[in-house]
Amino acid sequence: MTDDPSDLLPAVAILGAGSMGGAILRGLVRSGLAPAVTVTNRTAAKAGELAGLEGVTSLALEEDPHANAVAVASADVVLVGVKPAMVPGLLREIAPHVREGAIVVSLAAGVPLATFTGILGPRVVVLRSMPNTPALVGKAVTGLAADAAASAAHIAVVRRLFETVGAVVEVPESQIDALSTISGSGPAYVFLLVEQLAEAAVRKGFSEAEAWMLAGQTFIGAAALMEATGEDPRELRRQVTSPKGTTERAVGVLQDADLAGVFERATDAALARARELAAG
């Protein structure tokens, strides 16, 4: 919590407080920086899950079809967290109700700034964001791209909002889709590696529970070591890899399998799909 009113964020609305919007909401509540947040969801059941959070007004569209309009009418910062295909319709719905000068922030992958500005017009400032799921535990990486109308002060407000759930990097919009293939999709790559390492452990005779603990805790510990030391991961890898030892042999197999090329092809595939989404 902050005791300095100047540190507080203006009134926030989150339209579509699903997994990502909900993670950001909880980060805001934990930080104490947003004393007034209004969130919307389709169902009363989902809205009810968020209603008890401090400073949060949680609205359900099934109870009030105008909930999105109500939410934006009282907000200076609006986060759009609905699925990408739903964004244009939502923007047309809220356009008459958004406050002049409001900051509208997209959480939707593949939806360009031009879609927002084309529907909402010059009355608002628009940014695109690309957070990732570690926002749930305050360890997100969020990419931010702003339209030309955004001032340094606008960007600072949005940056402060996303810093409640992790680190923030500012990029031009031309880089936001590429960023999504690294940090946005990245947690899935890590979980897949944990999964494969655990399966290798099972094949070596460990129980499934032991295998998941060995693989999962190894990734958790390695990430914590990298964070705590601030060392270049290449140096940390060298510290584990004794010359002519077992780790060196294993790393050699991974390198022979062209792991770098695999990640290049994977991120290229994700980028191609992001561009397909952007093209409609």
From TrEMBL:
Main location, first listed in the record: cytoplasm
Positions of NADPH binding: N68
GO terms under cellular component: cytoplasm
Pathway in which this enzyme or protein is active: Amino-acid biosynthesis; L-proline biosynthesis; L-proline from L-glutamate 5-semialdehyde: step 1/1
Gene Ontology terms: biological process: L-proline biosynthetic process
Catalytic reactions on record: L-proline + NADP(+) = (S)-1-pyrroline-5-carboxylate + NADPH + 2 H(+); L-proline + NAD(+) = (S)-1-pyrroline-5-carboxylate + NADH + 2 H(+)
Keyword field contains Amino-acid biosynthesis: yes
Keyword terms: Amino-acid biosynthesis, Cytoplasm, NADP, Oxidoreductase, Proline biosynthesis
Residues the record lists as binding NADP(+): L15, G16, A17, G18, S19, M20
Enzyme Commission (EC) number: 1.5.1.2
Domain Pyrroline-5-carboxylate reductase dimerisation: 173-277
Family label: Belongs to the pyrroline-5-carboxylate reductase family.
Annotated HAMAP family: P5C_reductase
Official protein name in the record: Pyrroline-5-carboxylate reductase
Organism: Microbacterium lushaniae
